[in-house]
Amino acid sequence: MPAIVLIGAQWGDEGKGKATDLLGSRVDAVVKFNGGNNAGHTIVIEGEKYALHLLPSGILTPGCAPIIGNGVVIDLGVLFEEIDGLNARGVDTSELVVSANAHVIPSYNRTLDKVTERFLGNSKIGTTGRGIGPTYADKMSRIGIRVQDLFDEDVLRAKVSGALNLKNQVLVKIYNRKAVEVESVVAELSAYAERLRPMVTDTSLLLDEMLSAGKTVVLEAGQATLLDVDHGTYPFVTSSNATAGGACTGSGIPPTRITRVVAVVKAYTTRVGQGPFPTELLDEAGDRLREAGAEFGTTTGRPRRCGWFDAPVARYATRVNGVTDFVLTKLDVLTGLAEVPVCVAYDVDGVRHDELPMTQAEFARATPIYETLPGWSEDISGARTLDDLPRNARDYVLALEKMIKAPISVIGVGPGRDETIAVRDLI
Ligand code: IMP
To answer: What is the spatial distance between Cα 331 and Cα 396, in angstroms, rounded to a whole number?
Structure first.
């Protein structure tokens, strides 16, 4: 009963699609367990490009059940837009299952996300503006609207009314916006109820049955370790648990069911939005990584901040997620560099830190201590085994593996599906 957790080891956009692709047709279900349409993955299948923000990537694999777990926040408009877009291209989405306990994103939370960011000015988080944070805040404040509430209009009206009692105070008195009418929100959400109903189930029970029947389930995180609300660079994080623990709370699968934790890590580092990033390159070396790696956001189109590989960050991901395997992506982007610096520790106020410092204030002041590894100029996109790599590229991978304290089982050497070195099987 393999239950494999798939997470990002840095600040997101590590290329989880590559790992999902490799697991491919051997997987019976892919569960999205956190986040919402703040994520974005582009998957290329037989030359066709699919950009998904909300739906689990399993939606594109025939025979694989895509499941939206209870830990997800759902923008219903986006859900049906993505379903309709896929159906128009001949993709069957009839296997999609949605948890009755997942929360929905009402339009007032998109408004609040944007006005709050504007209000924060220079202290803004740099959110995707999709209403993610306010919806998770409502969940914790116990004024959230869940999928199951849509199926009883009286319950829905009572919940929306309760939420707006508070939200309208904030919208009107702090942000100087118009109050939102209860009935307009009830109508907005009810409009999706009938179409949604056949997809909704007790996903925790379904997953338990699948695992007991020996099926293979992948639990795929949105965002990544350093964006986790507990273990990331708070407050510059997303509002959910993107680490392996979140796979349990966000799906209803217990920790004792998890058999493997696969972390995806890029051969360098990127970040979107605000927040500390010790190895960030603000010069032409950063521009080079951005161009060579096509580092522009799938969801917002924002240019990503780029920097060298940060070993303490990846090692931290190994620790908090219990990583059993790494998938190292985009090694080819480093081809052509004479030397490749790797951050091995930090200097904080003259003191060396081999691990992430305890406080965010210290992390914000951390400057990287680099070890410089020799680069390579040979094209590596045709490599299919470790031995096919030029010596310096192989040594780079082996040096990283030693620093991050978990095996690198897969290496991405190009954007194509087959441009991969599989050192070890992931199932
Ligand atoms: P939110 O998730 O929209 O609240 O944004 C919070 C922070 O997480 C911002 O810095 C976003 O740029 C970042 N973020 C959210 N989703 C992703 C993602 O899928 N990849 C990378 N960064 C993300």
So the answer is: 9
297 lines ligand 1 (CB under 6 A): no
pLDDT at 58 over 90: no
Tens-digit pLDDT profile for residues 129-149: 999 999 999 999 999 999 999
Query: What's the pTM?
Result: 0.95
- Compute the distance between CA of residue 365 and CA of residue 363 in angstroms, rounded to an integer: 5
The C-alpha atoms of residue 113 and residue 131 are separated, in whole angstroms, by 5
Going by CA atoms, what residue is nearest to atom 2 of ligand 1?
238
**Nearest residue (CA) to ligand 1, atom 23:** 223
Pair 196, 98: CB distance under 8 Å: yes
Task: Quote the CA–CA distance of 132 and 239 in Å, as a whole number.
Answer: 7
Flag whether pLDDT at 417 surpasses 90.
no
Q: Is residue 39 in contact with ligand 1, taking CB distance under 6 Å?
A: yes
Is the C-beta atom of 40 inside 6 A of ligand 1?
yes
As annotated, the active-site residues are: 13, 41
Please tell me the residue having the least CA distance from ligand 1 atom 8: 238
Q: Does 223 sit in the ligand 1 pocket, CB within 6 Å? A: yes
User: Measured in angstroms, how far is the CA atom of residue 141 from the centroid of ligand 1?
Assistant: 21
Cβ burial 388-426 (10 Å sphere, 16+ → b, else e) = ebbebbbebbebbbebbebebbbbbbbbeeebbbebeeb
Confidence of residue 356 (pLDDT cuts 50, 70, 90): very high
Residue with tokens 């991901």: 317
pLDDT computed for residue 167 by the predictor: 96
Q: What does the alpha-carbon distance between residue 220 and residue 52 come to, in Å, rounded to a whole number?
A: 14
The predicted model gives 382-398 an average pLDDT of 98
